[in-house]
Amino acid sequence: MMMMMMMMMLMMMMMMMMMTMMMIEWLIIKTCRSFLDPFEVFKGEIEETIHKIQKAISILKYFRSIYAQYAKHRVAKMFAAAHPQQNTTDTNNSDGEQAATAAWSFPDELVFYKFDAFLQRLHVVKGIIEMAIEFLKLEKMELSGVNGKMLSMSVGGVYEAFQQHFKIFTENNYDNLDPTNHLFDRDLQRFEEKMADLDRNLGSLVCQGFDDLDNVEDIFKMMDCFGNVMDRPAIQLDVQSRLPVTIKMFSAELDRVKLVYDAQMQTRASNPNGVPVQRNFPSVAGQVKWARELCARISRPYNMFCQPEQQDEWRTDMKKFMEQPRGQEMQAKYKEMMQLLQNTCQFWALGREIPPRAKEMFENVDMYLKYSQNLDLLVTCYNRIQLSSSPTLSALLRGEMEQIDSLLVRAETNLNWKSAGLNVVSFKKCGAT
Q1: Is pLDDT at 11 greater than 80 in this prediction?
Q2: Which label site among 100, 190, 199, 321 has the fewest CB atoms less than 10 Å from its CB?
Q3: Which of these, 208, 203, 204, 202, lies nearest to 145 by C-alpha position?
Q4: pTM, whole model, 2 decimals?
Q5: How many other CB atoms are there within 10 angstroms of residue 218's CB atom?
């Protein structure tokens, strides 16, 4: 009888907590609605509105995390402390964590179903406004290329169509933040259908602009001008098929630079004093400047391929293509050309010919590059095993690691780049060990 009374009291306490939580949620939702004005959320300044929505979402998420921290853990411990006999019995179970929190076992959906629905609606509204911000940037879009003017006018048409659809969607008199408002869902579905058509049109224009350009720098500038619009699924699907072409285009540019370099070297070999340089430049300084300009010609586009601070989806896809064989080949070709031009600059600045040993070194640059890359990969794998292995795994690998250490000692003391029997070994499997 006593146990039944305790269970009833516990259930009553839990019900009271549920009611209290629901009242707190209602007050938070009411405050957010007053802060955002659900009837005017699409009609104010876009930048100010998106800032207010982000602030509201962060507050709602913070409340959810506080609930998880206190209600799920500290309140459960409080119940466990209030019933030590039950707690002792529960701790003998195989699932101690589940037994310890059994006192707070009702689903969160019973408490947070309105809260989560309101938070989801805020995310939907935030996504619509962010999309509007990106599409409004198309107003002053100017594309280069042979057909750049015509394509710019077409992009302007997409911008005007978006303005019209957005105006129709946002000019309503109902509550935009009410999750039970089916009129909002109906209008949103119609708006998304219109936006799907605009995405297809804009994706076609981006592909036409892509095909109209023959310079990697101009292509990257065009894609940066479109901004996050490029990350929309329909547009991204169209652009993704064009990304490998940029790698092929830049690889062809490297070949052209190599031909220019070889032609200059032949001219210099036949007539050292007759090498064409820029006007008003002395011979050596002019040749050095010429080599540096070739470096700039290939380094600027290459740096656009590798921009870690940019997190756009199409740049993520580009990085994946760069890891494929064609991308790896292009990177190796670029590094070889840059090293050649930099070395040429140094020797010309000193007024010296390239020594035979340096020429021999350069002829074997591919082999040395493979050695260097394999060595870097070996060091990375070795350090990963040493630093991230658990004590149990370290004990299991102790014999193998001692053998590796003994080989490394011999490599450090006896081996060099020209040692006999030094084969190019692939360590690709090391990353999976």
Answers
A1: no
A2: 190
A3: 208
A4: 0.63
A5: 18
Task: Please give the pLDDT value at position 119.
Answer: 93
- What's the token pair of residue 79? 């119940």
Using CA atoms, how far residue 43 sits from 30, 49, 153, in Å, is 20, 9, 27
Angle of CA points 379, 380, 384, to nearest 5°: 115
pLDDT for residue 402 is more than 70 = yes
Residue 106 to residues 83, 262, 329, 358, 416, Cα–Cα distance (Å): 19, 76, 58, 75, 68
Secondary structure element (H or E) that encloses residue 255, with its range: helix 243-270
DSSP category for residue 355: P
Instruction: Please state, in angstroms and rounded to a whole number, the distance separating the CA atoms of residues 285 and 282.
Output: 5
Estimate to the nearest angstrom the gap between the alpha carbon of 29 and the chain centroid: 33
DSSP labels, 129-161: HHHHHHHHGGGG----STTHHHHHHHHHHHHHH
> CA-CA distances (angstroms) from residue 359 to 58, 263, 356?
61, 18, 5
Contact 231, 313 (CB under 8 A): yes
Distance CA 29, CA 223 (A): 40
Q: CB-based contacts of 28: which residues, under 8 Å, 6+ apart?
A: 59, 60, 63, 115
DSSP for 380-431 reads HHHHHHHHH--HHHHHHTHHHHHHHHHHHHHHHHH--TT-TT------GGGG
> For residues 179 and 118, is the Cβ–Cβ distance under 8 A?
yes
Write down the domain spans for the chain.
2-86+97-140, 144-241, 243-354
- The conformational region for residue 282 under phi > 0 = left, psi -120 to 50 = alpha, else beta, is beta
**What mean pLDDT value characterizes the chain?**
79
* Token representation of residue 389: 């292995």
Question: In this structure, what token pair is assigned to residue 42?
Answer: 């699409």
Residue 238 corresponds to which amino acid? D
Least confident of 9-13, 328-332, 417-421: 9-13
Tokens of 186: 């109906």
Rounded Cα–Cα distance for residues 360 and 366 (Å) = 12
CB 204 within 8 A of CB 140: no
Structure tokens at 324: 């494929």
Length of the chain: 433
What are the C-alpha distances in Å from 301 to residues 32, 273, 305, 306, 315?
47, 32, 7, 9, 14
Handedness of CA 228, 229, 234, 239 (dihedral sign): negative
